[in-house]
Amino acid sequence: MVNLPIGYSDKQVTPYGGMSLMKRFIDQTGIRGFLRQLDLPEPGSNRGYKPEHIIESFWLSIWTGASRYIHCDWLRYDKVLQSIFNWDEMPSQSTYSRFFGKFSQKRNTEVFPVLQNWFFDQIGVDNITIDFDSTVITRYGDQQGSAKGYNPNKRGRNSHHPLIAFVGQTRMVANAWLRPGNTADSSSCKAFMKETFDQALAGKKVGLVRADSGFYTEELLSYLEEKQHNYIMAVRM
Questions:
Q1: How confident is the model over 174-207, as pLDDT tens digits?
Q2: What is the DSSP string of 133-192?
Q3: What integer is the mean pLDDT of 114-139?
Q4: Which of 223, 231, 221, 113 is nearest to 173 (CA)?
Q5: By CB atoms within 10 Å of each CB, which of 72, 133, 201, 218 scores lowest?
Q6: Where do the structural domains in the chain lie, given as residue ranges?
């Protein structure tokens, strides 16, 4: 049996040392400076956290496994990780919930398409294939905006009926709208598609548009023809 030496040290350690690579990535992209240009909710006092700090620390929580606000509190005790990101401390779960609770539909429309456009500029994707999807997400509680509507999987259950646009080459979300479950398939589809092309993917060449049957309307077909986009669209028989 090997006698392994046992020792003690006052040196702080973290199981998330690999996050130093993500810190380097954030620094290289310049996302912090871009976030400062957006209309993000500001703190109510001088002692509050800056919006970019809240967002970065929220990203870090997700990267290390958080799936609920309460999980974000785990990292508040990891001083090594905080020093890697040059933070004195991290926000609490209540700070996150208050911050994201200030995002209205108006602010979402002003912030996220611009942010998505900046993001896709960084990765240099062009001549893209864009996939539009209208899906149904079943809810098992009373989540805000959920309602009874068309739900092929769980009839009678509350649901959300979001619209999502993906970039095929990268499998990344280009745009997304969350709608109540009782929203008709084609409701707001043209506005969503227009926002995706004109804001989230502004300046990008679209090589092909693919859409599910929820987008199949005469109005949308005319719009795509007018834009001279190549497209494939599913049709309910």
A1: 999 988 888 876 778 999 999 999 999 998 999 9
A2: EE--EE-SS--TT-EE---SSSTT-EEE--EEEEETTTTEEEEEE--BTTS-TTTTHHHH
A3: 88
A4: 113
A5: 218
A6: 18-101, 115-233
Instruction: Say if residues 194 and 132 touch (Cβ distance below 8 Å).
Output: no
| CA nearest neighbour of 206 among 146, 98, 125, 149 | 125
132, β-bridge pairs: 165, 211
Tens of pLDDT, residue by residue over 72-101, are 999 999 999 999 999 999 999 999 999 999
| Whether residue 226 has pLDDT greater than 80 | yes
Residue 168, both tokens: 């095929």
d(CA 61, CA 144): 24
Distance in angstroms (rounded) separating the CA atoms of residues 77 and 97? 19
CB contact at 8 A, 75 and 61: yes
Which tokens go with 155? 């009839």
Q: Phi and psi of 155, rounded to 5°?
A: -60, 135
Cα dihedral: 40, 43, 49, 52 (round 10)? 10
- Residues 159, 136 contacting (CB under 8 angstroms): yes
Tens-place pLDDT, residues 140-184: 877 888 888 888 778 878 888 899 999 998 889 999 998 888 887
Dmax (CA) for the chain in angstroms is: 78
- Which of 97, 89, 110 has its CA nearest to residue 38? 110
Residue type, 216: Y
CATH T-level fold of 115-233: Nucleotidyltransferase; domain 5 (3.30.420)
